[in-house]
Amino acid sequence: MRFRTFSKRLLADWMAQTPVLRCSIFMCVSTLAFAVMQVSVRAVSAELPPFQIAFFRNLFGLAFLVPLLVGQGWAQMRTQRLGLHALRGLVNIGAMLMFFTAVATTPLAKVTALSFTAPVFAAALSVLVLGETFRLHRWTAILFGFLGMLIILRPGLAIIEPGAFLVLGSAVLWAVAMIIIKILSRTESSVAIVAWMGVSLCLFSIGPALMVWQTPSPTAWLWLAFIGFTGSVAQVSLSQALKETDPTAVLPFDFLKLIWTALLAAWLFGEIPDIHTWIGAGVIFGSGLYIARRERRAAAQAKA
């Protein structure tokens, strides 16, 4: 009885906070969970191949999401766009396999910094695929995003790891997935989008995992379950933050991913990011944030 009373009081105090404060906390939790998931993938990659890690991340991640889906009601999973959900899952699994492979072989801070290019690629694809209005500010921000990428990679001046190209390929595919999500959101509920993503990711990652299958040790099983849990926490926290308030109000917190990742990578693996990674990440992230703010302003003007 005391626990139930305490829980109700805690929930009431939480709901009494402003949406911006709640969503800021959700974003902090999401970025920390994402960083912890990355270092966990790096840790277990010493024993298991990335493709197999990706499969178990999806399997355990879906298992942790099932209680939430049951609470929302299975009826919300009904869809008439199963093919588009499957395409989104296929694109997503390609992005995940490339990203996990990069995480296993490339400095984690650089992986995180380059992953910030996804919104920049998505902005370009929105014009080319969705036919959104050409705006000079959008293309200026996109050019700055690519400038930040060049600052990090320094082609011709530094050796570019293969993993860096994998991260960029992953960012492009994730940008394609963002476009598909935009199309799906016109008719599908957020529950259906999340649920079908989990199902499709599990199905599409089984084949690659079987090709490189190795029996996990007891310790590896714990790592895999933890990766699934932290991945789900990151995803659900991000979704809730974006649901409760305007994305531009909480997007600045997304840069915390780089800070958490850099601190954990330095502590656990002795990886110290260079100044070019920080500067390039700042330029890329700033361009993505600028695009988001300008798109919000344009949408508000269109409604007025």
TrEMBL record:
Localization (cell): Membrane
SUPFAM superfamilies: Multidrug resistance efflux transporter EmrE
Main localisation: membrane
Keyword set, alphabetical order: Membrane, Transmembrane, Transmembrane helix
Top-rank taxon: Bacteria
Annotated membrane topology: Multi-pass membrane protein
Transmembrane segments: 20-41, 53-74, 86-105, 111-131, 138-157, 163-184, 191-214, 220-238, 250-269, 275-292
EamA domain: residues covered: 24-153, 162-287
Entry keyword rRNA-binding: no
Family: Belongs to the drug/metabolite transporter (DMT) superfamily. 10 TMS drug/metabolite exporter (DME) (TC 2.A.7.3) family.
Protein name as catalogued: DMT family transporter
Species assigned in the record: Sedimentitalea xiamensis
